[in-house]
């Protein structure tokens, strides 16, 4: 089955101007705040992780028709149904009909501040030394993977220079597939604009960096 | 593929017609999850309050103002932003690994997440609507100067634009250039010049003359 992410927008043309206003940007509707809080609370149960959550969002069929928190809501419902935490009937009727499934943890009010301040660190102790060093030329993978991945389409199969070494981090690709953390070295790699967009795109005097796990990269 | 306007705020009319349906849907979900014991309703209120009143761009403004005033802090911020920012009390979710990128006379930094909407919550709060919108995510990497013009920012020729696409769990904050004429200001006054957008890189800090606290003249 094809994995189809609708969220990989970088470099796509035709989107028009960025509409912004100085006010009201941070103000959310009440239902949006509830969705945020429900998503964070359910994330704490351990039924899924943030990468599974991102995969659930980016594969929603109507992703590009939904607002940001509509995406969050639809993905939360999807994950709850997939994990068996709730049933379709419960969702439709808005009340519990059967027993709960066991969860690792329930986030209680008194624990919220500490949980937010701690976050979900993804740094892991380094095993082997990093394969690449700062300043080294690399080439990104050109494979369009059939699962959640964090190498944007625009940055596939391109030459870059290693800019920073971020440490060894939980690998999003395997983490999203419930295949474990499988930590890898994470790098910031930097592309020249001509490498990304070709010589015919008007020059902007710009460079673009992405954060890339080691298996996304080969020596160039 | 046609561009969707649904992500941005100008589509609110359309959204409002759906609002009550959405409210009901969220309320139903909350009821089920509470009845089944997966969520503590009081925890939901604490979470909402945290992002409404405690966690927002004023935190990041403190970081920037400190860096403008304190050379040693600035050095530590650029070397290890996570530790430096934690020393001001800002840590945790969606800011576990921070990198600060410095604007100079030669280089302007801008932050995006093309794949979703990754954003440094502990220092900037929740992302603004435009940051999550398709036009910003699509264009920031390919047409950064055009995006800056949408925000009314025109960089001099010769200034390089560095775009940071937040594709992993590292979160970026821009350290803007300290505005001219701010030498006499206190840290608290400096913080008032630091806008949210200046820490994303789509804006510049206010100048002492344009700031709301112009009463703090020498």
Structure explained in plain terms:
The complex is a heterodimer of chains A (220) and B (218). Chain A is an alpha+beta fold. Chain A contains 7 helices and 6 strands. In chain A, strands 1, 2, 3, 4, 5 and 6 form a 6-stranded antiparallel β-sheet that branches. In chain A, helix 2 (50-58) packs across helix 3 (68-82). The two termini of chain A are 32 Å apart. The mean pLDDT of chain A is 95. Chain B has helices at residues 12-35, 41-54, 57-69, 71-79, 81-86, 121-124, 129-132, 134-139, 144-150, 187-191, 196-200, and strands spanning 97-102, 107-112, 160-165, 170-175. In chain B, 44% of the residues lie in helices and 11% in strands. In chain B, helix 3 packs across helix 4. In chain B, strands 1-4 form a two-stranded parallel sheet. The longest helix of chain B has 24 residues, at 12-35. Chain B has 218 residues and is mostly helical. The chains are: A alpha+beta (220), B mainly alpha (218). The interface between A and B is large, with 98 and 92 residues.
Question: Can you summarize this structure?
Answer:
Chain A has 220 residues and is of the alpha+beta class. Chain A has helices at 30-43, 50-58, 68-82, 88-93, 112-118, 172-176, 193-197; strands at 123-124, 137-140, 159-169, 184-192, 206-213, 217-219. Chain A is globular and about 60 Å long.
